[in-house]
Amino acid sequence: MSRDHLQSAERSAPAGASPSSVEAPFLELLARGASADAYEQPVLLARAEGRAAEWIVALEQAKLLALRVRSELEGRRRREAELSALFETAHDLAGLRDLDAVLQAIVQRARSLLGTDVAYLSLNDPARGDTYMRVTEGSVAARFQQLRLGMGEGLGGLVAQTARPYVTDDYFKDGRFQHTLAIDAGVRDEGLVAILGVPLMLGHHVIGVLFAADRRARVFEREQIALLGSFAALAAAALDTANLLTETRSALADLERANEIIRDRSAVIERASDVHDRLAELVLRGGGVHDVAAAVSEVLDGTVEFADAGAAPAGAVEVSRAEGHAVRHDDDWIAAVAAGGELLGALVLRGHPGLDPVDQRTLERAAMVTSLLLLARRSAAEAEQRVRGELLDDLLDARDRDPRLLRERASRLDADLDATHVVLAARLDAAPADADQQAAARRRLWSAASHLAATRHGLAAARDGGTVLLLPLEAGDTATALARRTARHLGTAVHEAVTVGASAPVEDLAAHPDAVAAAYDEGLRCLDALRKLGRSGDGAAAEDFGFLGLLLAGDRDIAGFVGRTIGQVVAYDERRGTDLLRTLDAYFACGMSPARTKDELHVHVNTVAQRLERVGRLLGDDWQSPARALEIQLALRLHRLSAPAQR
Q1: pLDDT at position 431, please?
Q2: Which letter, b or e, does each residue of 518-555 get, where b requires 16 or more Cβ atoms within 10 Å of its Cβ?
Q3: How far does Cα 550 stand from its chain's mean position?
């Protein structure tokens, strides 16, 4: 933004200007996609011109908000670019005509999305017993482009031997794989330092390796490794499809006498092409996994269903996942749906034992498209969960106190900060064996809590080694009931005991965001009390702990405690003009002796007995048990202390 533009915007805004005039420079920066450094310019110009301190503070706040929006937009653009590239590659594969062009496109897109200097693909040559470079992108060294490697040599040899991705931060300092003069010379000519390699799998065989490399030290993130793995799967599918087309053409040339068989095969291939077109259309218009199953069911003339990982036959799913092909299970066919080594589910073709090889490939392609759709849906869900968590973090930390802005952010997430809410602190009770298992368990708890918050129009965030939820309280519901339901729901979702402590209901959160932090502290105290009382896996609020609730509650609800404990006796005395409260006071003061109580009150012992019988009917038969008697005595004392203030 130019200095003249900024001065013009600021001159039009008087003292105490609205947020929109302060935000205008940053909105313009967002609109034209400016770099992050450019967002400092409006603040620097305002300071140079001696603007008021309030204006500078407002600009700083607007700058931070704009940078957060820019970061979120950049993340979404990156994810959209990744998914678009995968979908485009899948579409190329569906209409495969030139294998070299498809492989070149895969390598180009992998290099672009991972932001590496070089990307290349090598294939095994069984006839010569070595590996050769098939496609390179970004390479400048002729010797590197013409490398032929012996089996098991270099980083690619390690990937081929283990059938797993490998990454090195510094190739020449890495001793995990076999270095050779030829390979090292080629890598040195190219100037490569950091290299990531993922296997190209056909069944359980490694047929080649897809690489991404940089000429500087670099750490590859897990998402980048998974993305390159997806491209490798598409490259392997392209090779598999090309081999299938070659086999088909050979069969047509060599088996001219089998015209009927050829016609049948042609019909099957036509069906495969049809389903590929349908799947590509589904991907482009944002269809779901059940739409894919319905399309394949129609083409294969059978019933295809998507099953979660735990609902499909485990043995068949593992074989399909390992081999990369659909496998037969009794009269059904199973195709694993996986991505980046993670099992997402399976496509099951019911009651179709006789399946043509091309139809089998069709089922496998459908499983691949299903995995892409699931990854896209997960990416969108995770983005929404992060946004919900950021809003709750802001409420807990009270960083953003603008009620209008808080309400707008909540409204975009289908949440209403003007409704009555309860803050719940949730923790897992089981102690994981190691740090990785503990982190995985916490991620499962956060995911389950985020899903619950989204369906209940609330918020959830990871906090202090557990999860905090902000859920609306329905009319007629209680904080205790909500805490117990939440503990059961989360425990069922993560298959472990989850303890939940709840705050008292809180209101008007947009105007008083600091109330959320206080309520969270109260929920944590209830959570600790549940654990100390041996009630792990349960849910409760401060009101469930009797007089201990006075210590747990953030607002020390003395009147509520007195009302819950002896409220019926107080009301009875007020309605009937009786003296039950004074009788209770004297009864406890006299060591719970009716004889001494009648002397203290100057009444007959039968009168004392009748009054105590009435107290028992009002408070319950266990009112003289040690725990109840202690609570009643404390309530009587608090009632006496509060009585003068009530008159």
Answers
A1: 66
A2: bbbebbbbbbebbbeeeebbbbbbbbbbbbbbbebbbe
A3: 36
Query: Shortest CA distance to 440 belongs to which of 525, 536, 523, 342?
Result: 342
The enclosing H or E element of 197 equals: strand 194-202
Q: Would you state the pLDDT for residue 470?
A: 87
Written as six digits, the tokens of 353 are 């034992």
Q: What is the mean pLDDT of residues 453-477?
A: 86
CB 177 within 8 A of CB 240: no
Say what the pTM is: 0.37
Facing residues of 211 across strands?
A: 120, 197
Beta strands of 432-504 (E only): which ranges? 459-463, 466-472, 498-502
- Residues 26 and 50 sit within 8 Å (Cβ to Cβ): no
Buried/exposed 18-49: b ≥16 CB within 10 Å, e otherwise: eeebbbbbbebbbeeebeeeebebbbebbeee
Contact at 8 Å (CB) between 62 and 6? Answer: no
* DSSP designation for 207: E
Instruction: Judge whether residue 4 has pLDDT over 70.
Output: no
Strands 498-502 and 539-541, how do they pair? parallel
Token match 């929109």: residue? 20
Lowest mean pLDDT among 251-255, 384-388, 456-460, 534-538: 384-388
| Residue 87 CA, distance from chain mean position | 23
